[in-house]
Amino acid sequence: MTTLLVRELEFYAYHGYSDEEQAIGHRYLLSIEAVVAESASQSDALADTVDYGQLSAVALAVAQAPQSRMVEHVARRVALALLAEFGLLESVTVEMLKRMPPMPVVASAAGVRYTVARNQLA
């Protein structure tokens, strides 16, 4: 097994707990760790693994719409969509961070990490 890594895909979306955040939008970072039952490490063939470009495209499409109030909800939707789309994935961890979140202290980012394994789905 191999773990595919995609770090800090940056995108703009209209998620947020407050109505203002949903109207104005915010910049987010999305990272993915996906455990793949692959044989490309031996075959050297793209067909024997998951293309991280396609993985990224699916993740961003799901992360950008529809709107959600909570980043937890978005991270879960992304993880489940990746498992549904790519049969070679055994598990997925999605980290979603909101850049410069609206809070009373300064943080460069805040967010969540959500992990789900294919064998947990029933």
Brief description of this entry?
The chain is an alpha+beta fold. Helices cover 31% and strands 35% of the residues.
Give an account of the 3D structure.
With about 120 residues, the chain is α+β, with helices and mostly antiparallel strands. It has one domain (about 1-120): GTP cyclohydrolase I, C-terminal domain/NADPH-dependent 7-cyano-7-deazaguanine reductase, N-terminal domain (GTP Cyclohydrolase I, domain 2). Helix content is about 30%, strand content about 35%. The chain has four helices and four strands; from the N terminus they run E-H-E-H-H-H-E-E. The chain has a four-stranded antiparallel sheet. It is elongated and about 50 Å long. The chain starts with a strand and ends in a 5-residue tail after the last strand.
Q: Which structural class do you get from the secondary structure elements?
A: alpha+beta
Strand content: 35-45%
CATH fold topology:
GTP Cyclohydrolase I, domain 2
Low-confidence stretches are none
**SSE order, one letter for each helix or strand:** EHEHHHEE
CATH class designation: Alpha Beta
What keywords describe this structure?
122 residues, alpha+beta, four-stranded antiparallel sheet, 4 helices, 35% strand
Mind sketching the topology for me?
Layout: E1 2-13, H1 19-24, E2 26-36, H2 40-43, H3 52-64, H4 71-85, E3 89-99, E4 109-117
Antiparallel strand pairs: 1-2, 2-3, 3-4
